[in-house]
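Aim 2, interim progress. The first record below pairs a target sequence with its structure tokens.
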Amino acid sequence: MDCGSCAATILTALERLPGVSGLKVSITNETLSLVLDEAKTPSTTIESQLKNLGYQTSLMHGASTTANAVPVKAIEKPAPRWWATHKGKIAVTSGLLVVAAYAASIVVPQGSYGVFILATIIASAPVARRAFVAAFAGAPFTIQMLLTIAAVGALFIGAAEEAAIVVFLFSVGEVLEGVAANKARAGIKALGALVPKTAIVDDAGQLREVSAETLRIGQIALVRPGDRVPADGKVIDGMSSVDESPITGESVPKLKEPGAEIFSGSINHDAAIRVRVERTAQNNMIARIIALVEEAQEAKAPTERFIDKFSRIYMPFIVGLSALVAAAPPLLLDGDWSTWIYRGLTLLLIGCPCALVISVPAAIASSLSTAARHGLLVKGGAVVENLAKTQVVAFDKTGTLTVGRPFVTDVIPVAATEMEVLALAGAIERESSHPLAQAVAARVEKDGVSLANATNVRALPGRGMEGTIGSQTVFIGAPRFAAEQTALDTDLIRRFEALEGDGKTVALVVAGSSVAGILAFRDEPRADAQKGLAELKALGVETVMLTGDNARTGQAIGRALGIDVRAEMMPSDKSDVVRQMAGIRHTLMVGDGINDAPALAAAHVGVAMGSGTDVALEAADAALLGNRVADVASLIRLSRATMGNIRQNIGIALGLKALFLVTTITGATGLWMAIIADTGGTVLVTLNALRLLGFFGTWRQKISATPSQVDMTVKAA
């Protein structure tokens, strides 16, 4: 299937059959699914009808043939070269016959007419057959029918030469449409190719090669340097840097060590690692991305739905107008029948809406494919349109604008050195799984601090941690509980209150009867958060942060990032605020947690961070697999470019028709120019849409020109 009219013809032909319901046609996947009652219509009838319409079909692997969904798919074979396809053979044959006719006109002028007729009949016969099958199935207004009427009419008025050229050009146009459609599908097919065909399984020390599709949950896969990871899972042995750019779009390799999650399709760089399989091939990240993108491409945008409705009215109107142009002047103005029939037939070809129908889905498909390749998942054309209209973005704080876990931001020595404070805290906290304890452990490892052995370590619920190092009791906890261990002087109180004023959580390290030092913790902004917010501002989009955290912490993060803040909000509060904002301006919400799901659903567009909960990902309209704040601006920028592309496509399609409508009625152009305008318009809008496949590369080249040009170029983009 090469364009929207193909899908419309199939739907019209099948929906009239008894026992058929739930019809869904995917141009992107070249699939049809339906709910079928085989007591009323056997599945062989469906396949026969599709074959009559010109499609080779096969039942999809694993599909049910009882009264359930019956997916039918074009047979999975390597795509043949254009000249080896059925349409390609017709185009080549037609072209050779046209050349032969012109050659005959030189040698035997009287014999060339018959060769032109032969060329017309041979090339138009398969088209006419499809046209009449579609007409009998209830779809009379197809491009095939319009072409058949025009070709037959041209033969009857003695324009055999033009009829042959028109049919030849139509055949070439169909070949070009097929090439363009396959190019548009290539982006999704390339995603599937990221997963390796084979995997090396470690079975109790015995290595064997198996098909990656057969991997089961719990199996151990060996991934050597340079190999692609065959399945989603967790690293259980080894340490290596892994390139996840095919999945998340993140260009910097990530260090993977035991316990780290790893995605199928990512590339192992440094050393061999062993991965425990946690998802089957049918449910891995690549498969989920492909499924989401394919489903999204079939979710029509409002503009596309309007074009579909418009074309249903437009086609009968054009047929009526063509008949009027052919008959009215001879009947009312004593015009020449041959001249006006010719112009009516030309207008019939001019009026074909193929370019108009494909203008929106081609752009949407290219946009979704581009986004997916850069770790941005968008659930449909309607979402793309809404993204392009975004006026304000509301961000959750924790896990969205910030990393989502605390870091040690300050180590302030009091009665000990900085290294001694970390050594004391690390010795006690390393036996705890508390997030603050893990933050201490990370800082100790980063600074290379040597730790002493701590004994009698115990957690004091709600208060802190306590243990013995040597002969000294060490306590770590909030200042109010530390005050129970030792007296706190005014200077010390002033220092930790200043830290709390910056939105940080403070813990005092008490060794014996004195305060050894102060530790301050905070969930820090993501590395690209400030840049991402600046890019949104450059696009003219306002931003606000909604957080359930206390006002002091929220304001501190807000000041650091330069964003307005609304703090101490319950999930219902976030949802209410987003709903109020959406009532005034086009609102996008970005979040990652279960508590963000109501707000994501309340916004015009909900965007989930890829590291978020499944609930957030389900509630959202889009997802950022790379967990980059800057990708929000990228989504909006791509969506705006897509809508601009759609407007260009509609302008091309309607502009060509308006131009040739005038030239046809005035007699300036004839049948062959009409078919060039139709097929040429279809190919033009498709090629224009394909420009979106390279959108991010083109945009990044622009903004990398010079640092001083960045702001100006971002605004222009």
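The second target in this work package is listed in the same format:
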Amino acid sequence: MQKGRPIQTFLTISTSIAIAAILGSGFILAQKQGAFARIEQWIAEQNLLPVGKIAPKPADDRSSVLPLVLLSSEARAVQLDEIALSDRPSIERSRARYLLAIDHLAQLEGGKALRLLNDLEDEYPLLAPYILLKRARAYELTNELDRSKTTLESLIETYPDSLAVAEAYYHLTEYDPQYGDRAIAEYPQHPLTHEIVRKGLEGKLDQPKLLLFLAKNTPDAPGMTDIRDYLVKNYRDRLTPEEWEAIADGYWEQWEYGKAGSAYAKAPNTSENLYRTARGRDLGNSKAEAKISYQQLVEEFPQAEETGLALLHLARLSDPQEALQYLDRTIQNYRDRAPDALLEKAKLLEKQRNGKAASEAKQLILNQYPQSEAAARYRWETAQNYAKKGEYIQAWKWAHPIAANNSNSNLAPKASFWVGKWATRLNRPEDAQAAYKYVLAKHPESYYAWRSAALLGWDVGSFTTVRDKQPEVVPPQFRPPPPAGSELFQELYQLGQDEDAWTLWQAEFGNRQDPSVAEQFTEGLLLQTTGDYLKGINLIWSLKEREKPEEREEWLALRQTPQYWQALFPFPYNDTIIKWSKEHKINPMLVVSLIRQESRFEPEIRSSAGATGLMQVMPETGKWIAEKIALKDYSLIDPEDNISLGTWFLNYTHEEYKNNSMLAIASYNAGPGNVSGWVKKFGFNDSDEFVEKIPFGETKNYVESVFSNYWNYLRIYNPEVSKLINN
């Protein structure tokens, strides 16, 4: 983590004397932090701005600079110039000067950047180390290499506790390789230190110390799997248990569970490492070895948290009689796992045709663990069985308690929605409306919230009207600061300095194995700025799996912020999406929703079947569409081309199904032949029932996910729907 930053004060002598005179002899201008803090507080109260000091930051929504961050350098130049030329020192003037300097550096205009950066550290102390880094770069562009080197050395001397020193070391290695050794010793977590190490490995891979340095400090960087494999293959007899653990952690983070399991077997003998040994082998399809490792965990750590989960896995890997013994042990000793064990026990007993014992196990779930996920699953399965027989009152009775007892369950919005549907069939419209309003109030982010809003008559589109709507899209006007990280990092992020912010965050973020909720969210947010939307969205989504009460409370508080939902449902390529959606008369919110589901905004992603790019267009389909529209030169990994072709095809599927968006979306995933067959088999009297009957689990989830995305994009980026939700 960042060691801290010395407090900088830039009071002129005349200003100091004036303040001392006003405050009287009782206020001594000593070189103490407390004294300066009181002076600064008094200055703020009197609205005085001595040379070198700036006014407090305005609120983000009142900043004149932050909204310009999201514009291109050309689009914001005139406004930034005007702010930068202000006579009065302010945080806004400093920000404008810094951003203009950055834009000039990007255009290789070192001289112009130097004029803006001159003495800027005095009025912008928060960014002072980075101002010196940019000044060094500007001198480099003007071919004043000695001054560039001197500026970097000045940074090291003036701000020794800043993580920017590591970046200075990195650049100074061009003059003296010993700076690289200092970076490795002092800043092992800094990504530019990792670059120094990688350069040292070029052509000389047989350096286990450097390889292990990377394995410990940068486990998720590109190419690290090859480095871990090299270490395991060539140095397995020389690795310590702690080094095996670092290698195993890296494999685990990259979902290479089979390799992780083998590596954890040589790591220190802890309950977590034993569980990951077993689970890694289990997921790696080494079932016999996995079972032995689970059994070892149960024997050596009978009270560990991981042991209850291990017993459930052992039951799955064992014959029925042995499985029942493992499940009974779980029920007796691990209360948090007992509901799942009881449900699994009931299923086994039903297979053995012991219906009475199975019913007793299920009743125990309802009696002793009514708030468990297992209880919700049992209730929902029973409700569905009654509904299939047309016994809607019984279905209602079984589904209704899910809302009260299991409000955090994924089944809660679904059960509540169907309570409303069944109420309609029982001619109880008031109860139906109450159920739909409950879903909107308690689960506003769910697919069933959209279905509820549509059935309540909100103007949000239905399966047959979504396609033609062109809702207003209002993206965020500025970036709120992330909830974790230093003030310096947060300022860089808000200024759109994504590369610098990402580098600094990697250096600051030291607790990668056990991040806080705020740290994990910030990591996900930052990954999106690097273009890694897939990993970023998944990190933020997985926050809901936190089980500790204090972490869930923090997550629930985060969910109340617009920033959380904008990060979970980002809107990159928005101009391109809106352009081609308009061209092909498709609702842009539906297009971005499909892209989020298909590719998580990864433009070069390819499926195992060959589907490519943002909208996962098959090469054969892309070729067919290109011929239809006379497009000769195109690339499926180019966002512009991919969205053009994808929206054309989405329009085509809509025309095939008379603008029924649900059938069009299902066809996009499963193909028109399958969808036509389902319509013939199931009929289409009730669209919600049709979705439930889709026999392909992937396609059913796909349809619900795309329309869940659609609803969330509406409520986040459309002011009218957002207002309806918040009223």
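Residues 1-54 have pLDDT under 50 and may be disordered. This observation will shape the mutagenesis plan for the next reporting period.
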